[in-house]
What we know:
This protein has a domain at 2-65 and 128-192: Orthogonal Bundle (Helicase, Ruva Protein, domain 3). Helix content is 53%, strand content 10%. The chain is built from 15 helices and nine strands. It has helices spanning 2-16, 26-39, 43-50, 57-63, 72-79, 82-94, 96-106, 110-121, 132-141, 147-164, 186-192, 208-221, 255-260, 293-298, 305-328; strands spanning 19-21, 54-56, 130-131, 172-173, 231-236, 253-254, 263-264, 274-281, 286-291. The strands form three sheets. The protein has a five-stranded antiparallel sheet. It is globular.
Amino acid sequence: MNFRIALFIFLLITVQSVSAAIAETDSFKGFVKHMVKAHHFKDKELRKLFKAVEIQQAILEAISKPAEAKPWFQYREIFMTEARIAGGVQFWLDNEKALKAVERQYGVPAEIIVAIIGVETRYGAHPGKYRVIDALSTLGFAYPPRSEFFVKELENFLLLAREEHLDPLQPVGSYAGAMGLPQFMPSSFRTFAADFDRDHKRDIWKNSADAIASVANYFAHHHWRAGAPVAFPVTAKGEAYRQALGAGVKPDTAVAKLRALQIDLPSQLAGSETVKLLSYQQPAGEDLWIGLHNFYVITRYNHSPLYAMAVYQLSQAIADRKKTQAIRK
């Protein structure tokens, strides 16, 4: 029995590590043809490049098990750790000058920017281990559920590499092809990446100031409201509040309506303001929150309400810790 178990584990590991060169499928041929016609790449050079690209089973395994599939109380534990809070304070202190300048320019609070980078890569410690071109090619040509999206990102990645004078075989990132400290997809990089120090490079891999400015630029373009709140915890009497729970994250219910459903909301919120009632699963029961416009803006980075709440709560924990340390000094 022990031998059989060992053999099963060996075979499982072997299967998961399998990689293969890109096959000459119709979709791949169509992609090459499009890049040549639309962007003037050379057919022979593209085919030579992709001979070095691998379809990786490990990437397909990873995308099938996203953290956002976990219940909130388990998802929260991934990010609300002492190490991530302390690391956020240190990253803030190490980059205080850039964070202050970026906050003045874009109106996005330093703690939100720090928390995004903390959730995404633990402040650059874990930017990903897969070559971006392998990740995007695997998901573009071997993952039918989202092939259209990832083929488009592969197109943007090749354009990015040409524009930024990068070897397309060098950048590494997540299993989904997200890159650098803030984990930008290639399309986001091309649109929102910023050259903070004006050295004519948008380096979100090693230049923390560029990464900070890029996150702020992303939020500003998605209409972050400077000085406005993000979310509030709320309580409710009875079960009427469940009428207001629904799919999506965009604010869709007037505060007055929620109050009529016996939900206790902050008094400073006007009855006409639109918010989103959110439920977060706990081991026993649930937490209720309302997300405001800026909460919705966070979900433009990642559409999961779990992700947005993790970013918000981590941002508050980091800001509180930094204030406490400053007082003690």
